[in-house]
Specification:
mainly beta; binds copper (II) ion; 3% helix; disordered N terminus; binds CU-O-CU linkage; 30 strands; 432 residues
């Protein structure tokens, strides 16, 4: 990594705009170039970034399950774009993938998204056009769908994790999609931080943290300090019962919700081979008596129950540096096919349950994301594991998933290390 490998993080929380939506009130998201202090203030200089409505991350969009989200994307960039609502089970034509589900929104034009998120949970939105660059430049934000009866907490805090590759003068390094990054672990920044809303906490309070990994390629192993609680949801979907926190690991695009009681100064760090790296902290002062109630289980979302799979497919991740030989035309491939094929990886009947082995034949980890659906990870003992939209498979490993393809349309299936996606690791499926 580069000289600026280790910088201090900003301890001051930045003010993130929040848009609370009610009953389908329309909101405009304006994609635009702006400058923002990304580095801590002791380092000079605003960074030129791309954001929404004047900030990076874009505004937090918050609504209730069952409410309609009406968003006009106004493209104020000098290039095309489109917005994907990551993890949301929605109508295919609202999924935000240029060429597959909609036309690219050219510079200066607009596109209206309108859908009703079916499931409460922690989601996010991001550019899905040259996303390895547009997301790295800042085009992402939180999308929070609240439960009808949210759990009893004092604060509900979305935490967007990201990393940045900055030059000595605090500007984004312009080497997006270089061959070395593509063939290795992707574009890893030399600076990382957690974007936290400006809340203050008291010891004894109960909080819900919604961790969102919005980095293009970095896996975040997160150390949480000053909190005692449990994980209650992964990728937006409630766990059957809360589990102890230990050390959460978030692949790009993954989310993790936890409910915890404040026991002292709250800090987030990244566990790094060169030592813990501070990501951000939340000021704590004062004391309130803690709750006696146990950490609650979130109400389940209504998802199709998997049947017995009639088909078992294999998706092999191939390519990259250090021996990833394959026949694909780009650096990465699925099953020897690089880039978006004209024909889908598979066609499914509506409501078909399918088992897919995600086999990583390469030397690098990949976070595989399926649009429009969640799927069960299958544990080594064959039981149904976590329910996710993005699953991390380490080099040389494989993971089976079970998915009910119940959402009609054309859905992307790709590595969410966005630099790997750019390097060819993407395909799509079609559900009748
Ligand atoms: Cu989060 Cu295909 O995207
Ligand atoms: Cu990958």
């Amino acid at each position: 990594m580069q000289r600026r490998d280790f910088l201090l993080t900003a301890s001051s929380a930045m003010c993130l705009p929040r848009i609370a939506l009610s009953q389908g009130a329309p909101v405009t998201l304006r994609a635009e170039a702006l400058t923002q202090q990304i580095l801590p203030t002791q380092y000079a200089g605003h960074t030129s970034v791309l954001g929404f409505n004047g900030s990076v991350p874009g505004p937090e969009l918050r609504l209730q399950a069952g409410e309609r989200l009406n968003v006009r994307l106004q493209n104020g960039l000098d290039t095309g774009t489109a917005v994907h609502w990551h993890g949301v089970r929605l109508r295919n034509e609202m999924d935000g993938v240029p060429d597959l589900t909609q036309r690219l929104v050219p510079a200066g034009e607009a596109f209206d998204y309108s859908f009703v998120p079916r499931d409460a949970g922690t989601y996010w939105y991001h550019s899905h056009y040259v996303s390895h660059e547009q997301v790295a430049r800042g085009m992402m934000g939180a999308l929070i769908v609240e439960e009808a009866t949210p759990p009893d907490v004092d604060h509900d805090i979305p935490v967007i994790l990201s990393d940045w590759r900055l030059t000595e003068d605090g500007q984004l390094s312009e080497d997006f999609g270089n061959r070395h990054d593509i063939a290795h672990a992707g574009r890893l920044g030399n600076f990382a931080k957690a974007f936290l809303p400006p809340v203050g906490l008291q010891v004894g309070q109960r909080v819900r943290l919604r961790l969102i990994n919005a980095a293009t390629d970095r896996i975040f192993p997160v150390i949480l300090k000053g909190l005692e609680g449990k994980v209650v949801a992964l990728d937006g979907m409630p766990l059957a019962a809360p589990v102890p926190i230990e050390q959460p690991m978030l692949a790009p695009a993954q989310r993790l919700d936890l409910v915890a009681d404040v026991t002292g100064p709250v800090a987030l760090e990244m566990d790094h081979r060169m030592g813990p790296y501070p990501l951000g902290d939340i000021p704590v002062s004062g004391f309130v008596p803690p709750r006696d109630a146990p950490i609650p289980t979130l109400p389940v979302n209504a998802l199709s129950k998997p049947g017995t799979p009639a088909r078992h497919l294999t998706l092999a991740m191939m390519g990259g540096a250090m021996g990833g030989a394959h026949d694909g035309a780009n650096i990465w491939s699925f099953n020897h096919v690089s880039d978006m094929p004209a024909e889908p990886f598979a066609r499914f009947e509506r409501n078909e349950t399918v088992r897919i082995t995600l086999r990583n034949d390469s030397r690098f980890p990949h976070g595989i994301h399926l649009h429009g659906h969640h799927f069960h990870e299958i544990r080594p003992d064959g039981s149904l594991g976590d329910f996710r939209d993005t699953t991390l498979v380490h080099g040389g490993n494989s993971r089976d998933i079970l998915c009910v393809f119940d959402n009609p349309g054309r859905w992307m299936l790709h590595c969410h290390m966005l630099t790997h996606q750019f390097g060819g690791m993407k395909t799509w499926v079609e559900v009748a």
